[in-house]
What does this fold into?
Amino acid sequence: MAKKSKTSFAHTSNSLWLWLGLALLVLLGDQFTKILIIGSFALGDSSPLTSFFNLVRVHNNGAAFSFLAQAGGWQRWFFTGLGSAAALLMVWLLKKHAGQKLFGFAIACVLGGAVGNVVDRVLYGYVVDFLDFHYAGIHFPAFNLADSAITLGAACLILDELLRVRRG
It folds into this structure.
């Protein structure tokens, strides 16, 4: 029985490192793309790439869809603390459920994206957004790679739960 526990622990430990590695790749990709945007665009600059997509440089002082963006500055540290606490919870969840593939993938995506946006808040005081999709003159709020990873992770969490309910 002890041997099985060691094997199970080793598998869980390996899976944990896999998920943390994925989160790190998301974080690095997010920060790399933001550095490229900061180095290539002034605040407010826009470069059309297709009839429905622009690269832009926008600073978001708030949360999703600029929630609390005009709150006077306290929100920077509030969202930094919230993101940091969420990251710790996600690392714990990954450790506890490292063997669950879809769940692990989802949490790793959300973790990497959340930490990417926390890094922005600490370094700049705002989150750098640069992906601007639009149609018929209507622009979806600009976002970044971290936001995309968080959205993908959230969708995978929903799928994971739907599959779990269906199995159970």
Remarks:
- The CA atoms of residues 21 and 109 lie 10 Å apart.
- The chain has one domain: 2-167.
- The radius of gyration is 18 Å.
- The first helix runs from residue 2 to 40.
